[in-house]
């Protein structure tokens, strides 16, 4: 078979051992190179060589398992194919390797191995030349390539049969695939003897079969071996076509036939397995779409998309998008729902069991549930729980879902500033997704869950549209039965969903949104309530979370009280829960180690240390570890807050005000000082406009009443501002403050400054002032009172008209505090200073009597 025409391969060839496939002359194959021997070959031969010859290497099929490809060279297959490396690509991921694209040139026989290291090199004998085939025309001249096969009658018949079978096969394939079209074009011009190699490498054959073709050096033998494979493939295709006739569309579908043959580890074949799977997938998707119980418009859209999907080749990116869309549509709970199992009595018990205190909120929630029970399609307002963090808003929402027997899903809206977060992206965008509402429905899998819209007050606004506007549609009972997510593009009925919102403050909720909701204030807890909550809920919960039992850890009430007063200063119980968690962790270590309890608990340590002395390290202490205040200090460190506020009130010009923040009430030290100057008022501490005006009001009122109260400036004159500059400061300077309720505090603070008298150290106050000296009511009284109580203050001055708010305050706290209700500033000043703040006319007789 050898000839002197065309390429003459070198007689010494470096050998590449492949274990992934069999390269045949005339075909191209991608080979992954990662064994040390092959890597070395690529490096020193292919990457360093410069001549055409250096790109020719011998490819020998290696039947050995690549894992065992060790130092020793395996026994080599005697026939190989000389290949020309067309492309070398290197990569370091996941491990260093090269990928070669190699075209088979001709067969060779191994004559002898010349060297083994670092890669094998062998002396070879060329068996045939590719060029020989491509020289068209021959003695017979029967047109085109057929000429290469001459005299031999049997061989000619065989080659003719093979050619016809090849034509038949190509005819059954989809011509829109470029490789198929190319093959059909070339089929007539290719020399017939090349056909067995080329077709054997293209059709679905095993490595073993390819090896048989490779080993058939004799042409007749090669035809005989390849022909049955070709016929088998044709029969297989015929069968497939028959089964597909039911769905004529599918015949047109493109077959993913790749040019160049095989990829590593995967044999090339004309009929991809994926095709069948794909067809199955689409059919099952269609079944699911029909069974999803969608409303008419959604079903229509789905069927349309399905039709499009069927026509689309799988390799198109849009096919995956459409499939995702359909998957989502199928998964959405169009008509799936849970049945409400509401029993008001049970709901009351459950709410009481889950939550201590918060009576008002629980009552309103029960009312809401009761009305729902009586009227199932209630289009009532959306409940919005407003209060400081950690007061149990989310937790009540969860309980509502439990009492109704509904699914619960929390949608956190904090920081959301893009409309598409709520409403989804249009499907035209790359990576488009449905919004959080639709996603939530997909997660819970029913269309009547309880959705908790967390932190509606923290919605942002940006160029991408206003998410609050999108929420309006979601929450409006008149509109939400046909909520359209941009991604779905068909309406979804949200009217069965029970929405509950939570917020820290109502001031930042857009008014239109607030209008849709019924606000339920959840105030902070008193110290005693916190201690109760800790013992009823937080401690048992934390113990369970840390795998401890009450027999191992005990936290007495005193310790909890100390934790609430000296380690946390918050309206809710979240950081209290964290502190309890910290204690549990510390104790868990002790228990796990079976160590002696802390020295501080000497009283109980004796019992506990027994276990250790016994030498059994895993045995927990027998006695519970009791956390007293020394143990508390050991675990949590020194107290973070000091109860003593009196030290700060040692100079005139300081008064304690009460502020309300979204995080609960707070006490605030207002400080004033004066220096010689031109009567300027400086205000610091990031005050808002309303507060600045309050300061002006306070100064004006004091100036106009300076004589009455014997207020003086620095030089003893009767106008406090004459020759004097005043500076008023509100601490926590980095936090913006605003609101009118600091009016009385400013007056008291300045009155103290101008009179040189100290304000009582245990008094705090709140109230708006007018120019005439009246004290007007303010909001957030309960939170403010609780903050004052937390800080250990005793007397509170509040506006007279806030009297009614005191009813909300637990009786024991009311009993501990001395409330002074003030109708005007005179009342305030009298209550704020020891012995009152006497007006001049009243002091006259007193002075006279002294004389
Ligand atoms: P919020 O949503 O108001 O910020 P959470 O509902 O997340 O607060 O509550 C924080 C933790 O405090 C939860 O573990 C909750 O169970 C607990 N908690 C708050 N208030 C109470 C209460 N009154 N009774 C029992 N546990 C409570």
Q: What keywords describe this structure?
A:
851 residues, alpha/beta, seven-stranded mixed sheet, 29 helices, 24 strands, 16% strand, disordered C terminus, binds adenosine-5'-diphosphate
Structure description:
The protein is built from 29 helices and 24 strands. It has a seven-stranded mixed sheet with strand order 18-19-17-16-20-23-24. It has a five-stranded mixed β-barrel with strand order 1-3-4-5-6. Strands 8-9-12-7-13 form a five-stranded parallel sheet, sandwiched between helices. The chain is elongated. Residues 131-147, 246-274, 595-621 and 842-851 have low confidence and may be disordered. Residues 355-358, 389-395, 502, 533, 537, 572-574, 577 line the site of adenosine-5'-diphosphate (ADP).
Q: What is the terminal-to-terminal distance?
A: 144 Å
The distinct ligands, each listed once, are: adenosine-5'-diphosphate
Number of helices: 29
What percent of residues adopt helix (DSSP H or I)? 40-55%
DSSP, total strands: 24
| Widest β-sheet, arrangement of strands | 18-19-17-16-20-23-24
The geometry reads as: elongated
Low-pLDDT parts are: 131-147, 246-274, 595-621, 842-851
- Major sheet summary line: 7 strands, mixed
Round the mean pLDDT to the nearest integer and report it. 80
Q: Rg from C-alpha positions?
A: 44 Å
- Which percent range describes the beta-strand content? 15-25%
Structural class: alpha/beta
Concise description?
This protein has about 850 residues and is α/β, with parallel strands linked by helices.
